[in-house]
């Protein structure tokens, strides 16, 4: 069984950079060889060499020309076209020699989550390996306690939509002060009680309780694709889940 990691997040959150940095980290530590899959038909430059690249099947540029669409419409159309090639992609992925497969998903998160492509990709890939999603957000969206609750909810939503375990991650750690991000549960709750009054505050508290009850309130690694900070913590968390499922020893 392969260990498959999907890097998912809003545009510009750092999916491509983190895919490259995490792969490089795995190789440099000789932890395990990693293969790369690019699922973004619109990307122009990749800082890693993909073993499988969706652009071999379809590109946004070609679709814009062929169908006379703008960039957003062409991205949606490209993803629809890509669905036809999923079996071929899966067959090639299962033959990759690396035990770790890192998947860089399309620029816009909603294209992967709320269209047919993402769930179908995951369903097919479950035959080849155990999949974990890494949901990435930018620290500029993480200034308030409510933002952390939103990240946890977004991870839960991703988990529900794709049917996989998900680790929420904050990228671009090099661009913030460590203490700025509320990662400690006790501090988070204290800040929430200060920040949010009334119904919103109560809902947030209950969301945190619910996630805790079901052991879904995973810690949130603060990572940097630029400096490599936090990648070991992310690896440990992934390893824990893969091991718990018997994929790794
Ligand atoms: P799209 O697929 O184009 O939506 O973007 P993405 O989510 O793949 O993000 P990408 O890796 O292209 O990074 C977006 C921008 O964030 C680039 O300018 C990166 O250089 C920058 N970036 C990514 N990771 C980091 C990081 O850890 N620190 C800093 N400071 N910038 C980063």
Instruction: Please give the largest β-sheet.
Output: 6 strands, parallel
Poorly predicted sequence stretches spanning 5 or more consecutive residues? none
Arithmetic mean pLDDT: 88
What is the CATH top level name? Alpha Beta
Domain count: the total is: 1
N-to-C SSE series? EHEEHHHEHHEHEHHH
Class from secondary-structure proportions: alpha/beta
Q: Can you tell me the CATH superfamily?
A: P-loop containing nucleotide triphosphate hydrolases
> Reading side by side through the largest sheet, how are the strands ordered?
3-2-4-1-5-6
Strand content: 5-15%
**CATH topology (level 3) name:** Rossmann fold
Number of helices: 10
Q: Compute the gyration radius: what is it?
A: 18 Å
| Helix content class | 40-55%
- Tertiary shape: globular
Count the beta strands. Answer: 6
Name every ligand kind in the structure: guanosine-5'-triphosphate
